[in-house]
Amino acid sequence: FSNDGMSGSVPEPYAESKNWILSSGAGAKTVYVKFADKAGNWSEAYSGTIVFYSGTLIYPETGGEVLSPNGRAKLIIPPNALWEPTSIALAFLDPASLQGAVPQNFELKAVVDCKPARLIFRKPCQLIINLGQNVVPGTSMELGLLDEETGQIVFMEERSPILTDGVTLQFPITHFSTYAGLSSMVSEGAPIVSGVKIPLPDM
Hints:
Number of strands: 12
Oligomer: single chain
Distance between the termini: 80 Å
Strand content: 35-45%
């Protein structure tokens, strides 16, 4: 067994389960394993990856703020928004890992996964995302969430403008999911659909 695919643990008899200590810190964790036959021939490395969350305990009466490990996502929880003391974690995911889930003609700018899954708040909280790239302030961003059943990002039928700093997206949420900020790749003022006839004035 190995956390880095290089160094490994001492060989041991095969078992259907194994207790293993992951590498320190929050984020994506990959564990590697190799198998040997009775002749001592070793297999190629097999691996599995999970996302490990290190949560912040928030109390209902006080509320509080939670940051993602990279500091690019923040959740502001007002007092009395929680039903009970809850450990909350945010993870900033790589947009490239969800490109196949993005609606046509849209670009995925940021993805934030919120845990515990399906947590419902008593009142709205504010999710603030730093896109990590400059966008024209005031640009309208489509908000979406990841549908667990289909694996596709679906629109929330809500938009939010980029703040004046050109990198920040902020919007209210009432429950936990995997949230996405998307920008349209089609100019709102430009496209004329093929086949549409435009009447011209008489000369």
